[in-house]
Amino acid sequence: MRQPGEWMQLPTDERILEILNSGLLLSPQVIAKNIDKSRVHVNRRLSVLVEYGLVTRVERGYYEIAMPGVQYLEGELDADDLESDGE
Question: Would 68 be classed as within a structural domain?
């Protein structure tokens, strides 16, 4: 069972992680199209997910899921235990 953090915005954050769990490097625009949210909203949420270490910014405009993101999706990580890197 997944253990979301109070800082998470559900179901959007989980949907972003699920799409990134495909193993592809994706842009906010592609993610937004697939979860029916605006690119601006997805961009904001990606910034938060990067801050907490669930997602990695690979290069300008492209993101991938980080190992803690995979562990969260598998129910092996409590997102409330994560700390923001403060960016």
Answer: yes
Give pTM, 2 decimals: 0.94
Residue 85 lies in a domain: no
Note whether residue 50 is domain-resident. yes
* Range of the structural domain that residue 39 is part of: 12-79
With contact defined as beta carbons under 8 Å apart, do 5 and 77 qualify? no
* CA atoms lying within 13 Å on the CB side of residue 81: 10
Q: What is the pLDDT of residues 14-58, one digit of tens each?
A: 999 999 999 999 999 999 999 999 999 999 999 999 999 999 999
CA atoms within 13 A on the CB side of 49: 31
pLDDT reading at 72 higher than 80: yes
Asked if 16 and 31 count as a contact pair (C-beta separation under 8 A), the reply is yes
